[in-house]
Amino acid sequence: MQKLTSFIAVAFIGIAAAGLTTTRAHAAPILDVVGGQLLGARNVSILGSLYDVEFKDGTCADLFDGCDEASDFTFTTVNGAHGAALALLNLIFLDDPLLGLFDADPELTQGCENLGVCVSIIPYAAVGRNRFDARAAFNYYQPLDNRDQGDLVDRRNRESYDSDGDAFRTFALITPANQDPEPEPAAIPEPASLFLFGAGLLGLVSTRRRRNALSTASSV
Question: Which helix (H) or strand (E) covers residue 74, if one does?
């Protein structure tokens, strides 16, 4: 019984260590909701890194430090902005039984006052002050299968475009996250867990052999 107990203990240690070897995954984002209105989110995983998101109305120039050079934007390529748009759709615009129906009711997102659609603009390239190219997350009410993301190049009076007067559109301000409030334990490399498990088994076998040898010697 003692041997069986020892074996189970060693096996448990090895399995537990192996369980910690899974690649660390980012936790779900933390939604910023006030009075039922979705203001943004923290710790949103975008292309493998964590970002904070705010939904705000205004002009590109006011919200993005002039909106006249690449350094004004977090993402500076269409692919980067596209990844951000996908993250908004898949990680933020979701229905939550406690927080709100941010997928089914797009107007719950700050800056959008239209029930049918909310377009969150993510500028990535400047073509002059308050003139920009952008990617956008289109969150539609119905049908949900038509939710999509696409290019958005604002061609209306770019010098004075202000989303304050647009019930369908808001800007998504995306910045690197300050911190991860729920850090996970560092992952143990797979070889280390296998070594631990193997060492335990070898130790058990060695102990058994020594006991057998002593038993044999005492009987002689």
Answer: none
